[in-house]
């Protein structure tokens, strides 16, 4: 099978502004994206300043970015009347098992973005823009959901990056008026995580610290092929190690929390392990795997129902000061590329995802396993 022409384009998102200690937690709608019936091979993102320079994590912590697909009526602008229910947007989530709008991304990482490989091997790709799958009069579009924390001048940089609630100047009655992931009032026991890192929230600064506000943007590179029958589509899955799976007869419900707190270590265990066993409705051949985790991560592992290890993703921590190698930060998560056809997941197989961290008090820890499955392999010649 001949290799196809791989197209490549770099884009820059709209700008957003942060000042010292400030959180930007935003959705950028209708981002630039290749058009037509295509197969995406890779999607890589960097956080840059107005001069186009990569911003180091110790200045602005890149908590996460998600690329999310939605469809809208052709010609509809997201700034139109938000109360108009016609024409969208209708969000199209990945094939993972989380409930509702939790972890809907097709691509997305965090501090590890600059170092983690996203490329899918030939002839596999994420098929997009197939007219047969898009309702007449509608079109696919994309948004970035992103969160960054400007940690310049903060009293406790690490706690700010963990969204530790006691490090933020929270609004009055914060716990009474803030809904949690289930829509109930946030418990005062909630010590940290994304709810304490809402847009515009402020992490506490050193007395008298001043620095200019800055405009930042996401610079992203997408590679893709024009779709034809030689390409094999893959499905993208996100499994969350906090998913509390419940089964009632033939019905399975999921309850993903997206994040969790590692309590104070009162045992001698060096590691804290969070795991969930999750049935996968539709299996396939494993093509690629990695994980999105936070500082303190030791590794994340995906197991098959028989206990076999399907993929372990391990972090690389930075050792210097340059963007992409910031000391103490997770700058890369390793990627699994199994030998083609060597790992097949059965329909209905119960997978276990396990996230392992250093056993110390940590808020906003995440354990998201990402993987791609294909229904078939290329014909061998």
List keywords for this structure.
381 residues, mainly beta, 9-stranded mixed β-sheet, 5-stranded antiparallel β-sheet, 2 helices
Topology at a glance:
Layout: E1 7-12, E2 16-18, E3 23-28, E4 38-49, E5 60-73, E6 90-92, E7 107-109, E8 124-128, E9 138-150, H1 157-161, H2 174-177, E10 214-226, E11 232-240, E12 246-248, E13 251-253, E14 260-262, E15 271-279, E16 284-293, E17 297-303, E18 309-313, E19 315-317, E20 330-333, E21 344-345, E22 350-358, E23 362-365, E24 367-374
Parallel strand pairs: 8-11
Antiparallel strand pairs: 1-10, 2-10, 3-9, 4-8, 4-10, 5-6, 5-7, 5-9, 11-24, 12-13, 14-23, 15-22, 16-21, 16-24, 17-18, 17-22, 19-20
InterPro entries: Stress_up-reg_Nod19
Pfam family, one: SURNod19
Protein name: Stress up-regulated Nod 19
Gyration radius from CA atoms, angstroms: 21 Å
H and E order? EEEEEEEEEHHEEEEEEEEEEEEEEE
**Domain tally:** 1
How much strand content do the residues show?
35-45%
- Average pLDDT reading: 95
> How many DSSP-defined strands?
24
Distance between the termini: 9 Å
Report the structural category: mainly beta
The global form is globular
User: How helix-rich are the residues, as a percent range?
Assistant: under 10%
User: What's the total helix number?
Assistant: 2
**Major sheet attributes:** 9 strands, mixed
What low-confidence regions span 5 or more consecutive residues with pLDDT below 50? Answer: none
Descriptive notes:
The chain is an all-beta fold. It has one domain (7-374). Helix content is 2%, strand content 41%. It is built from two helices and 24 strands. Strands 1, 2, 4, 8, 10, 11, 16, 21 and 24 form a nine-stranded mixed beta sheet that branches. Strands 3, 5, 6, 7 and 9 form a five-stranded antiparallel beta sheet that branches. The protein has a four-stranded antiparallel beta sheet with strand order 15-22-17-18, with no helix packed on it. It is globular and about 65 Å long. It starts with 6 loop residues before the first strand and ends in a 7-residue tail after the last strand. 39% of the residues are buried. InterPro entries: Stress_up-reg_Nod19 (IPR011692). This is Stress up-regulated Nod 19. It comes from Pisum sativum. It holds the Pfam family SURNod19.
